[in-house]
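USER: Please consider what follows.
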Amino acid sequence: MAAGIVASRRLRDLLTRRLTGSNYAGLSISLRLTGSSAQEEASGVALGEAPDHSYESLRVTSAQKHVLHVQLNRPNKRNAMNKVFWREMVECFNKISRDADCRAVVISGAGKMFTAGIDLMDMASDILQPKGDDVARISWYLRDIITRYQETFNVIERCPKPVIAAVHGGCIGGGVDLVTACDIRYCAQDAFFQVKEVDVGLAADVGTLQRLPKVIRNQSLVNELAFTARKMLADEALGSGLVSRVFPDKEVTLDAALALAAEISSKSPVAVQSTKVNLLYSRDHSVAESLNYVASWNMSMLQTQDLVKSVQATTENKELKTVTFSKL
């Protein structure tokens, strides 16, 4: 309690001095960790295998301090999603969610494309030869498989750390399910997105039909893509809002995603993770409900020392990356 009172007084005093000072008109919050300098910092750090992350279908590296790079790592199979992948993604992102040192995540694909989607050859037995003695039991078996596969991308959305997708080449079928569960999407000029499921005789069932309409807010376009399985190229993806930026090639796209992750990771983890939680809540609730939720949320989060540190850095014209925030 005493610490909270002291922090509150410090913050009040800082704001009072700044707002009443003669140089208030010159207040400027500078985001210097953007553009080329951030890309140099992000891509200039030697990649190292992340501890506690050893997988067959994924490669997880510490791109730099507080940033993890999760790479779909079956390039010889076009990063097709096999049984191992569906299990390992859940394990991976559950660990990341609990990793107090991680503040942002970048997902990319190894090789020539982001992902070809579901590995039909590997998963044919589960789908085409389901277990069960009758229709009821087979149906329960299939439902269990579907809900477990849904969890593979639900864990990305639930992860409190912002997740950035860096897409190049094809992003097909399950790839669209994956990237729509991410918070931010960048892509290379050669990228294309394809809701492929109708071409293999099924309705997408692990996230695309639920998240894509909320991402691009154009139901007619969503219906067209889902009914026809046609390719959406990079420029159309940008225009529709599926991605926020398009870059010349894979390398530049990944550098930009890592630079963005670096910028995000320089902020207060309390502020960033609280923002993600409230953005997701607001997506699925009314404005009134969401305002009530964030009021209840911030009644405790406003007591963080991160607030004092951030305001102090701003008033002293320091970059946030020079501030040490406690792990979360």
